[in-house]
Amino acid sequence: MSVSPVSTHLIEKATLAALAAGAEILKVYNAPDFNVELKGDGSPLTRADRLAHIAISDKLAETDLPLLSEEGKSIPFPERKNWNRFWLVDPLDGTKEFIKRNDEFTVNIALIEAGVPILGVVYAPACRVLYIGAKPNFTLVVRGCEPHEVSLTELQKAGRTLPDFEGQRPYRVVGSRSHGSPETDAFVDQLRSTHADLEMVSMGSSFKLCLVAEGSADQYPRFAPTMEWDTAAAQAVVEAAGKQVLIYDAQKGPIGPVVYNKENLLNPWFLVR
């Protein structure tokens, strides 16, 4: 399915929204302590999640496109199924990593068109790393990116295109720091038969997909639950960098791209490579 190219205007709007959310998150993260609540499904929620959601909503409201956010109101499928283009957002991906204070959390902002993520911005405010990917082939990684307003032109001068990893390394598979599974372990064990130097790296949040996009990891098998807002932005980055995010079937293997705005927002198992 063909999709429309993404305008520089929308890329910049999404980037500014991610940076604004990052600034709000760091205010809470750098405080002496913060309160943690539990949502209905038992997952943690902090004040940073809410502040990031508000910052993103305010910035993206200027685009007049619908917004579906993990921390926003639930949108019934009969309403959102007719959306051609919309924003899909996780204001703070990796809340568990945030609570552990290990820096491995991200802001995820994706633009979806006809079920396809055509623009993704992933910002890791504690690590000061910004990833951008947009159809057809716009990619950018900016390291040392501070959470304040800056133009896309300035970011392009400071950043590099993806993949940007240089040098020799072992064959690397990245996995979830908080959500492993026996199926993932079996998949990695099978890879070891052809990659004796295989190195397993544990990481939190959508960072894992971005490691494959930047070329510092080869595969990311995710055979455990995720939601659409967890992956959409990073999938756009991965695909713009020439890699794939594929639905993974235990019997058939990779069978096609992960798609978005389903009635059930739970993702299937997938493989990034």
What can you see in these coordinates?
By secondary structure, the chain is α+β, with helices and mostly antiparallel strands. It has two domains: 8-158, Fructose-1,6-Bisphosphatase, subunit A, domain 1 (Fructose-1,6-Bisphosphatase, Chain A, domain 1); 172-272, D-Maltodextrin-Binding Protein, domain 2 (3-Layer(aba) Sandwich). The protein has eight helices and 14 strands. The protein has helices at 8-29, 47-60, 77-80, 95-100, 152-158, 182-192, 207-214, 228-240; strands at 36-38, 44-46, 67-69, 85-93, 106-113, 116-124, 129-134, 138-143, 172-176, 199-203, 220-222, 245-249, 253-257, 270-272. A six-stranded mixed beta sheet has the order 3-4-5-6-7-8, sandwiched between helices. It has a four-stranded antiparallel beta sheet with strand order 11-14-12-13, with helices on both faces. A two-stranded antiparallel ribbon has the order 1-2. A hairpin with a 3-residue loop joins strand 12 and strand 13 (253-257). The two termini are 21 Å apart. The model has no long low-confidence stretch (mean pLDDT 95).
Short description:
This protein is an alpha+beta fold.
Keywords:
Fructose-1,6-Bisphosphatase, Chain A, domain 1; 14 strands; D-Maltodextrin-Binding Protein, domain 2; single chain; 273 residues; 8 helices; four-stranded antiparallel beta sheet; alpha+beta; globular
What's the structural blueprint in terms of helices and strands?
Layout (H helix, E strand, L loop, with lengths): L7 H22 L6 E3 L5 E3 H14 L6 E3 L7 H4 L4 E9 L1 H6 L5 E8 L2 E9 L4 E6 L3 E6 L8 H7 L13 E5 L5 H11 L6 E5 L3 H8 L5 E3 L5 H13 L4 E5 L3 E5 L12 E3 L1
Parallel strand pairs: 3-4, 9-10
Antiparallel strand pairs: 1-2, 4-5, 5-6, 6-7, 7-8, 11-14, 12-13, 12-14
